[in-house]
Amino acid sequence: MESKLEKRVGILKDEQEEILSNEDELLYGVEDSPDLITTSVLGFQNVITAFGGLVAVPLVIAGMAGFGVADTAYLVSAGLLVSGIVSIIQSKGIGPKGFRVGGGLPTIMGTDFAFVGPAASVIATGGIAAYFGGTMLASLLEIIMSYFIKPLMKYFPPVVTGSVISLMGMTLMSVAMDWAAGGVGAANYGSPLNIGIAVFVFLIIAVVNHYAGKKVAPLSVLIGAVVGYIVCIPLGMVDFQQVTDAAWFAFPQIFKYGISFKLEYALPFVTGYLVTVIETVGVMQTLGQVTKTELKDEDIAAGVRADGVGSFIGPILGSGPAATFSQNAGLIPMTKNASRKVAIAAGFIMILMSLFPKFATLVSIMPMPVLGGAGLLMFGNVAAAGIQSLSRVKFNNRNMIIVAASLAVGLGVSFRPEVTAGLPTFLSGLFSSGISAGTIVALLMNIILKEKEVVEQTA
Q1: Helix, strand, coil % (nearest 5) of the chain?
Q2: Residue 28 pairs with which residues in a beta bridge?
Q3: How far out from the chain centre does Cα 148 lie?
Q4: Which of 164, 166, 165 is nearest to 440 (CA)?
Q5: How many angstroms separate the CA atoms of 258 and 48, rounded?
Q6: Where are the transmembrane segments (predicted)?
Q7: Mapping DSSP to helix (H, G, I), strand (E, B) and coil, where does residue 323 land?
Q8: Angle at 392 between CA 209 and CA 283, to 5 degrees
């Protein structure tokens, strides 16, 4: 018979678990449809948190191609246009079963830095037309690979996926910290003012997210960013001259800079697409966890396929390859908003911003420390989601080694990327990203280290 004390302890335990469950409950699930204003505002919040990544690669590519102000602006607009289109496709999921494109989870798409390295050599050899032709041709590889994701998913048990999710958040911390310091190469990098602004935004987001009501808490990142932005104006940290110089309208053009289809231009990008496949699988699994969605292997394959299709579409309009961004995986657990309608709204906002460069520029001049304060919390949430996933894994000797090896190599490469420079080109590209390096190591260790059979000893 249970004693009264044991019963009371049991009741208290159940009540505590119910409270924790309610705290973790999403305000908007994947299928939910917030009202139009809420959807639009939350969608804009998604765009702001990803904006640095959305425009960074087009700016780098423009520099490699020796473009002037007008052509650079066009590349940024084209990047936003394609990101918007592919974000809608990825978030909605279109097409019949077996050929579906898009995982159907709230996702923001953009061009990944995995393609910047090979882009430098290709542009130097064949110009910007070679870059567009090479990435477009090589994107067919990712589309083909998406049909082989399902048999590969058996090599992604919880110990591997948890390690990858944790690693994804941890490796992005250095990016957020660079933003908080003022951005790589900034003359005032790490100044007390920059750090102070980042801390200020960080605290606003944390306090609003924790204490505000259900209607305001999901907007915590946007509120923090807007307040930080406004505070930076009298401090002379916002240059509105760039907004004045930007054009009012920008219309997309088909193959504006030409295109050159040659195998020699496509081969350098093969490694970038392999890295993208690995990272997209990780992002999709993270999104599945934070949106409380049970993903099927076909859903992850459709997500990878959206990357490939987006990368094929991009060069037609003047943008680079598309990749699934991880920012939303950190934003969702903070805002408790997992509605795909919000991500689709973000896609339409990006399309509108691409057509009206002044509006896009107004966002792009947001001081880096503001993004840094938001980024630290978001990427920290991704790492925390991975730790939460690993907490459900039995930490025997085998699993401990898998987690340790994945984090050690992934973080090691992230902290010291130059360590892979001396490897053969293919391996150097494959291990150039901390996320891909750690994922590959986790997969290999999972295959090499077999589960030990537990032999029961009978008396």
Answers
A1: 70, 0, 25
A2: 337
A3: 23
A4: 164
A5: 31
A6: 47-67, 156-181, 193-212, 219-238, 265-287, 342-360, 366-387, 399-415, 427-449
A7: strand
A8: 60
Does residue 231 sit within a domain?
A: yes
- C-beta separation of 225 from 366 below 8 A: yes
pTM, two decimal places? 0.74
Euclidean distance between CA atoms 101 and 305, whole angstroms:
6
Of 363 and 161, the structure prediction assigns the larger pLDDT to: 161
Average pLDDT value for the chain: 82
Cβ atoms of 50 and 327 closer than 8 Å? yes
**Residue 337, helix vs strand vs coil:** strand
Whole domain around residue 353: which residue ranges? 27-448
389: how many CB neighbours lie within 10 A of its CB?
20
| Residue 288: per-residue pLDDT | 87
End-to-end CA distance of the chain: 31
Is 46 among the domain residues? Answer: yes
Provide the number of structural domains found in the chain: 1
Do the domain assignments include residue 16? no
Q: To which residue do tokens 């409950």 refer? A: 25
Distance of CA 329 to the CA centre of its chain: 7
Judge whether 121 and 268 are in contact, CB under 8 Å.
yes
Nearest by Cα to 92 from 349, 354, 346 = 346
Task: Name the 3-class secondary structure at 140.
Answer: helix
% of the chain with per-residue pLDDT over 90: 14
How many other CB atoms are there within 10 angstroms of residue 419's CB atom?
A: 13
